[in-house]
Amino acid sequence: MKRLLLVLLWGALSIAGFAQSGQESVIKQILDQQTASWNKGDLNAFMQTYWKSDSLVFVGKNGVTYGWQNTLDNYKKGYPDKTAMGQLRFTIIRIEYLSNQVYNVIGKWQLTRTIGNLQGHYTLLIRKISGKWLIVQDHSS
């Protein structure tokens, strides 16, 4: 009986670990999608990885912004053209599994621009909503 329980426990943990690693690749795809959209100069496509809700939270150098549209408007104000946007690169430092529905991501961002490079760090809270992984909270500095 003990042996059966150990085998079942090991199997459940193996499946959970496999599911986690599969979801981590989805998280990486989200950041790859953001990078590609940004580097094309397409902020509307970049924002498709964010939760389209008034409850979206973005924390940046100017404080807290609530809502998808407000976040998009701030991006458009801060990065009005391709020159201001430059080329984005993300470096993931850690992807942390919090639950089957939530991941925490910590990383670095870099913008290479002719008008001066920028860089900083970010923390993302990514949640599965209606079967889709979306950024629900972004703290970028």
Question: Could you walk me through the main structural features you see in this protein, from its secondary elements to its overall organization?
Answer:
Residues 27-135 form the DUF4440 domain. Residues 1-19 form the signal peptide. InterPro entries: DUF4440 (IPR027843), NTF2-like_dom_sf (IPR032710). There is one protein chain. The chain contains 4 helices and 6 strands, in the order ααββααββββ. The protein is an alpha+beta fold and 141 residues long. The chain has one domain (2-140): Nuclear Transport Factor 2, Chain: A (Roll). It has a 6-stranded mixed beta sheet with strand order 2-1-6-5-4-3, with helices on one face. A hairpin with a 2-residue loop joins strand 3 (87-99) and strand 4. The model is unreliable at 4-20 (pLDDT under 50).
How large is the radius of gyration? 18 Å
- Write down the overall geometry: globular
Provide the β-strand percentage band. 35-45%
Largest sheet: 6 strands, mixed
Q: How many structural units, i.e. domains?
A: 1
CATH second-level architecture: Roll
Give the helix tally.
4
Give the helix level as a range of percent.
Answer: 40-55%
- Class derived from helix and strand content: alpha+beta
Which topology does CATH recognise? Nuclear Transport Factor 2, Chain: A
Please write the CATH class name: Alpha Beta
Signal peptide: 1-19
Domain DUF4440: 27-135
Pfam families: DUF4440
Keywords: Signal
